[in-house]
């Protein structure tokens, strides 16, 4: 059983409460079908991080001596503190630096995002020494706001170097 609407349109109401649109031949009506959304799961929460609180850097200690340089956490901390203090004084020594990983002559650090450029400038321009007349400097391998990106970029280099 169908009933025509009284407003003069071409819509017909059917007995299951759906609207069927009969397009006029001379008009450019488009029929759109709407399907109920199929839920594939439940979304608990979504969050977009536009500006992370931390930034990361991978540093390598270079030496002018022929012996292979191996680092530990205390040596890394003292060299980083010396570089920051030389570049920024007391303000530089107050920058929070977390040492994430130390392996041979390479280390990974985490610093507050707003301090990354100062840390990179400080360690990039620092030249230190010891009592054996050896000179040391930091080489910045990579830095950025996303640790996964830096680790992936570092892994790509190993593909080409063996």
Layout of helices and strands:
Layout (H helix, E strand, L loop, with lengths): L2 E2 L6 E3 L5 E3 L32 E10 L9 H16 L1 H4 L4 E6 L2 E7 L3 H9 L2 E3 L5 E10 L2 H15 L1
Provide structural commentary.
This protein has 162 residues and is of the alpha+beta class. The protein has 4 helices and 8 strands, in the order ββββααββαββα. It has a 5-stranded antiparallel sheet with strand order 5-6-4-8-7. A 3-stranded antiparallel sheet has the order 1-2-3, with no helix packed on it. The model has no long low-confidence stretch (mean pLDDT 80).
Tags for this entry?
4 helices, alpha+beta, 162 residues, 5-stranded antiparallel beta sheet, 27% helix
Order of helices and strands: EEEEHHEEHEEH
The overall pLDDT average reads 80
Shape: elongated
For the largest beta-sheet, the strand count, sense and barrel status come to: 5 strands, antiparallel
Rg (CA only): 32 Å
Structural class: alpha+beta
The total beta strand count reads: 8
Measured by DSSP, the beta-strand proportion falls in 25-35%
Low-confidence blocks of residues: none
What strand line-up does the widest sheet have? Answer: 5-6-4-8-7
How many helices does DSSP assign?
A: 4
Distance between the termini: 77 Å
């Amino acid at each position: 059983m169908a009933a025509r609407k009284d407003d003069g349109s071409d819509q017909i109401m059917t007995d299951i409460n759906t609207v069927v649109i009969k397009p006029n031949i001379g008009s450019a009506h488009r029929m759109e079908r709407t399907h109920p959304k199929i839920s594939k799961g439940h979304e608990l929460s979504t969050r977009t991080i536009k500006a992370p609180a931390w930034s990361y850097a991978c540093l390598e200690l270079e030496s002018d001596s022929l012996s292979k340089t191996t680092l530990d956490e205390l040596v890394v901390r003292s060299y980083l503190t010396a570089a920051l203090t030389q570049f920024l004084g007391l303000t530089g020594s107050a920058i929070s630096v977390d040492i994430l990983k130390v392996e041979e002559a390479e280390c990974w650090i985490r610093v507050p995002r707003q301090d990354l450029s100062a840390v990179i400038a400080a360690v990039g321009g620092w030249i230190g020494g010891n009592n054996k007349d050896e000179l040391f400097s930091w080489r910045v391998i990579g830095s950025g706001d996303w640790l996964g990106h830096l680790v992936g970029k570092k892994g790509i280099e190993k593909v080409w170097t063996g």
